[in-house]
Amino acid sequence: EAVRRVLLLGEGNFSFAASLCGAAGTHVVATCYESEEEVCGRGRAAESIRRLREAGAEVVFSVDCTKLKDYFLPEEREFDCIYFNFPHCGRKAGVVKNRELLARFFHSSAEVLTEEGEVHVALCNGQGGTPADQPRREWHNSWQIVAVAAGAGFILSNVHPFKAETIHGYKCTGYRSQDKSFCIEGALNHIFTRSTPLPYFKPMICEIELESRKVSFQVPQILVDKINRGFLELNSNHPVRTVKEKLTAELNQAFPLQNIDCCLSLLHQGHLNDVCHSNIFWIILSPEESPSTEEMSNGVANAVLFSHVDFCKDTDENGWVNVQEGCHISKQYYLRPSLLPYAQAIIQRGAFLPGTLHVLSGPVFRKCLISPYSMPVFHEVVFVCAVNRGTENSCIQMLVNSIKTSIHSLHQTLSGSKLNINVQEATSFETTELNDFAAFESQLSEIQYFICMEIDTSGCCEKGSCVGIIRTELVGSELVVVSASLNLDLLTMLICGISDWRMLWTSDTRFRCQFPRGKLRLFKSFSLYPPSYVHDVSFWVPDGKQFDEVAFHTIARQVSGETVVSIQLIDSFQQSETGQKSLCYRLTFQSCDKALSRQEVAEMQLLFRKEIKQRLRVALR
């Protein structure tokens, strides 16, 4: 079994190190900033150092925590855990100097820590600046430890009280072992781990079959890490798949089921009635592109290359998209925003078995405003059943009961909080009460009922979230088709206590490992109290142009890699003389799973300003 290597920094009298040195399978390297002569003349330090050496530990003096790799050979730089208890610049050093110390320490630690290693930093009450501090200091008056650590690629994965009384033989000293010790009542131990790096996505080409041809298209940049993730495939242990499987198993108790997922294309062509075109990810035919020699040799002579267009000027009466200046005009294609058209196509072809519940599922794509529950991509499941006219109400009741039973069952196994599932008639809702999922579905076709979940807890869930809708449609004179559409991602978030939709798409293995195959659990975040950064941007809107807020949010998603969590309009005015309109927005940046530094956000903000000026033709102020 591998020996766990532990590095201790800034030891005062080495009593903390001595308390660890007897642990089985652990090799301790204890260090301090002072020389051996300075340390050994104080208190019980000499005794602790003797115990450490007898136990086989290493003791190293005059170690600068900001230059750790200088003290160890390359083969000795792999530590599994680094402890730094009560760091301090000394005397009356202010918060800024101590932040600088921590920043340099974290960068230095990154050079000697294993990939799976931990950094433990104990701070006095209030210093860290996180909500775990009670009372909590104002942010500007704290050491801002999560933001400082993020600069070196670390996230806060755990925080708990530093209980000195439970550490055998431990005695806290002050700065450089001075007689006056630190006040450690209410002190906290902060545990940091490495973050996966922020992604920098290259353009991606996706190949699919469309109308019996092999075609390729460039994936919109904000979807590059979300296309073809396979969350719903048979070998997936993603919680979204587990929710879908448990949902369909319950429905199979009431209906015979038939899965028809295999034939669903990612691309649609043609009009979408009443759907706002700014909510669609457009893919247009690029006539100037032709198959390469390699494609020809691979039998893709009929391949057509598509490219993504974020912002179209208008669409003519024939459904052709007129793109920005310099682009060609083509037939319109778009990433599917819903699975409903597939269900409707099945109905129109008559390719259904009356009384059988047909199941369609897969990711759908919609441009939307930024919020914790607004998703540019999510997994939808649609249940479709044709019944004799006059029996549709009975079918709806069976469908609703099965869905409610399944959701209740999933929730009860995970949480003791109270869950209410309400099915409400669409006519009882105001448009302003609908979340993005329900509002978009309302544009597609008439809705009879909304399925809403409300979890009675102080946790992360949005109160009264609409997770599904039910429609009915008359086919001929004898049959009525009942369909239910559910947002699987939102349902999974509410059931598993996941507060941010972005976490479902994280590449960090610490998410997936919480959900063993076929099992659901309450999610425990591995990135606590992530730092947030605020930037404002103001600009003049072009004369005579309506400002496209969805496009504005989409650019923010793209340039930030989905790290913008909030966009608020904080000021708006119009010049009486010229009629020109000025807008000022506040952007809040925060990552739910990765380290995000102040410098990285500043670069994103500069790029954002450049992109909105170029794409939206605004005049920056």
Class of the largest domain, according to the CATH hierarchy? Alpha Beta
Overall pLDDT score: 84
**How many whole angstroms does the radius of gyration measure?**
29 Å
The stretches of 5 or more residues where confidence is low (pLDDT under 50) are 286-307, 310-330, 459-463
Number of domains: 3
Explain the overall architecture.
The chain has three domains: 4-194, Vaccinia Virus protein VP39 (Rossmann fold, 3-Layer(aba) Sandwich); 204-288 and 302-310 and 331-513, BirA Bifunctional Protein, domain 2; 533-620, Ferrodoxin-fold anticodon-binding domain (Alpha-Beta Plaits). Helices cover 23% and strands 28% of the residues. It has helices at 15-20, 36-40, 45-54, 95-110, 145-150, 239-251, 293-297, 340-349, 392-412, 436-444, 488-496, 509-512, 549-560, 598-616, and strands at residues 4-9, 26-31, 58-60, 79-85, 113-123, 154-161, 188-194, 205-210, 213-218, 257-259, 267-269, 282-285, 304-309, 314-315, 320-322, 330-335, 357-365, 377-388, 418-425, 449-456, 465-475, 479-487, 533-541, 564-574, 581-589, 619-620. Strands 8, 9, 11, 12, 13, 14, 15 and 16 form an eight-stranded mixed β-sheet that branches. A seven-stranded mixed β-sheet has the order 3-2-1-4-5-7-6. Strand 14 and strand 15 form a beta hairpin. The chain is globular. It starts with a strand and ends with a strand. Residues 286-307, 310-330 and 459-463 have low confidence and may be disordered. One of its GO terms (cellular component) is mitochondrial matrix.
